[in-house]
Design brief:
InterPro entries: AB_hydrolase_fold, Peptidase_S28, Ser_carbopepase_S28_SKS. It comes from Panagrellus redivivus (Microworm). Keywords: Glycoprotein, Hydrolase, Protease, Signal. The chain is an alpha/beta fold. It has two domains: about 5-215 and about 410-450, Rossmann fold (3-Layer(aba) Sandwich); about 220-400, Four Helix Bundle (Hemerythrin (Met), subunit A) (Up-down Bundle). Helix content is about 40%, strand content about 10%. It has 15 helices and eight strands. The chain has helices at about 20, 115-125, 155-170, 185-195, 220-230, 235-250, 255-265, 275-295, 300-310, 315-325, 335-345, 350-365, 375-380, 390-400, 435-450, and strands at about 5-15, 60-65, 75-85, 95-100, 125-130, 180-185, 200-210, 415-420. The protein has an eight-stranded mixed beta sheet, sandwiched between helices. β4, α2 and β5 (about 125-130) form a beta-alpha-beta unit. α6 crosses α10 (about 315-325) and α8 packs across α10. It is globular, with a radius of gyration of 22 Å. It starts with 6 loop residues before the first strand and ends with a helix.
Length: about 450
């Protein structure tokens, strides 16, 4: 056993005020595959590169065990991975980016401006990316039926990781391997857990925005959304608040619901919406504010959100404008049964399949349900109430599954990045990056170099 527990957990905090945000270090963020008209808020980090960039790295496949915890089950499947050794120097470490809750890409090991690749160049590391089971083309059973999803757990994924590393040690004839895992969001949590569970295999780990503390009723998510908007411009947050107050008043009568149906272009008439239909509608419109605060890059960011919110004719119209600008959908979801049916019929190899897989993991292991149950959130999204029971009901209707919130994991060596968004340290550096983000990258580099040179 090594005496050094080499683990970095990096948390990005959108809210400026540290004291308020400190308790929210585990906030999960980036938006993922869309099954309904709002994104399911899991933790996929999309690395966007030019579409015409030809991959220089070929797909490879590893023969993986279906069930690592049943000795009588000898079934196997092919797990996709990518390997780039162009910067490797003899004796250098092995960097492994862990795939999360989405389809993998060779661009992760080719993007030479990514932080982890810049580090690989500096220390002469080989770069690997291992796609997560039941996402993308890494399909253990060929379907996403309920009876197959029992093999989709973080424990199985961690065992996949350990088995893969041990096999690569033999294939590459590595006599003194030093595997350093990387991950962001859910895969960041996997990176931290891998170092904890398999310390003899994983030499060190970097966990960017890893939600290592799972909670069912994750009210802290919307607390961060509120703090981010309020910290940027209190008038913007107040306008959002007033806009949702107006929505709350309109939903109470038939004429008001007709106004909401036309303004938001809902998929069905809100006059006929029951309780779950209204929750679905609220979920769809609030989700746009979540996603903008969560991603906060490019054109879709908080300054642009507030520009639109405050530039509208009224606070209500501001909410309408933000939702249509952000969602880019023909209609806004308001039919609960349609959502349930779409999740039930999702198939692997599609973004909807990835979304079904992640929803299963959320229902079966983690929760992370972003309800409006927080007292703080009530001040901003007043009336658009989405209780945690709504999400629990979805789990029951889609999977007939129950939730378990008994396991809690702790951070080690946290690095807080004030003023940055989710997994920002993993993205290419820009001159406009806040000082806290630049400092965090330097701190990560310092720790990685200390591990490599130990």
């Amino acid at each position: 056993m090594r005496c050094l527990l080499a683990l970095l957990v990096i948390a990005t905090i959108c809210a400026v005020q540290y004291a308020e945000a400190r308790a929210l270090l585990e906030m999960p963020i980036p938006r993922t595959s869309m099954i309904r008209d709002r994104e399911w808020h899991s933790f996929v980090l999309e690395y966007n590169r030019p579409a015409d960039l030809n991959s220089r790295v070929a797909d490879q496949h590893f023969v993986q065990q279906l069930d690592h915890f049943d000795a009588s089950n000898n079934k196997t499947w092919l797990q996709r991975f990518w390997y780039n050794d162009q910067w490797y120097k003899p004796g250098g470490p092995q960097f492994l980016m862990i795939g999360g809750e989405g389809t993998g890409s060779p661009l992760w090991v080719e993007g030479d401006d990514l932080t982890w690749i810049l580090l690989a160049k500096e220390v002469g590391a080989a770069a690997f990316y291992l796609e997560h089971r039941f996402y993308g083309e890494s399909q253990p059973t060929g379907d996403l039926k309920f009876e197959s999803l029992k093999y989709l757990t973080s424990e199985q994924a961690l065992a996949d990781l350990n088995t893969f590393i041990l096999a690569q040690n033999k294939v590459l004839n590595l006599t003194s391997p030093r595997w350093i895992t990387f991950g962001g969001s859910y895969s960041g949590a996997l990176s931290a857990w891998a170092r904890e569970k398999y310390p003899d295999t994983v030499y060190a780990a970097v966990a960017s925005s890893g939600p290592v503390q799972a909670v069912v009723d994750f009210t802290g998510y919307l607390d961060v959304v509120y703090n981010a908007l309020h910290s940027y411009n209190p008038k913007c947050a107040e306008s959002v608040h007033k806009g949702f107050l107006k929505i709350n008043s309109l939903v109470t009568n038939s004429q008001g619901r007709d106004t909401l149906t036309k303004a938001f272009k809902t998929c069905t008439d809100l006059k006929n919406a029951d309780k779950n239909g209204l929750y679905t509608f609220y979920d769809a419109i609030i989700g746009n504010y979540m996603g903008i605060v969560q991603n906060g890059r490019g054109y879709e960011n908080i300054p642009e959100l507030c520009k639109r919110q405050l530039g509208a004719e009224s606070d209500f119209n501001g909410v309408v404008d933000v939702v249509h600008w952000s969602s880019q959908k023909e209609c806004i979801a308001d039919n609960y049964q349609t959502v349930i049916d779409n999740y039930k019929k999702a198939v692997f190899g599609t973004s909807s399949g990835d979304a079904r897989s992640w929803l299963w993991q959320s229902c079966n292991e983690f929760g992370y349900f972003q309800s409006t149950d927080s007292d703080l959130v009530v001040h901003e999204f007043t009336g658009a109430d989405i209780p945690v029971d709504f999400y629990v009901q979805q789990c029951a209707d889609i999977f007939d599954a129950s939730l378990d919130n008994s396991t809690v994991y702790a951070n080690v060596y946290p690095i807080l990045i004030d003023g940055a968004n989710h997994c920002a340290d993993m993205r290419p550096p820009f001159g406009s990056d806040p000082p806290s983000l630049t400092a965090a990258r330097k701190a990560i580099r310092k720790h990685v170099l200390s591990w490599v040179n130990a």
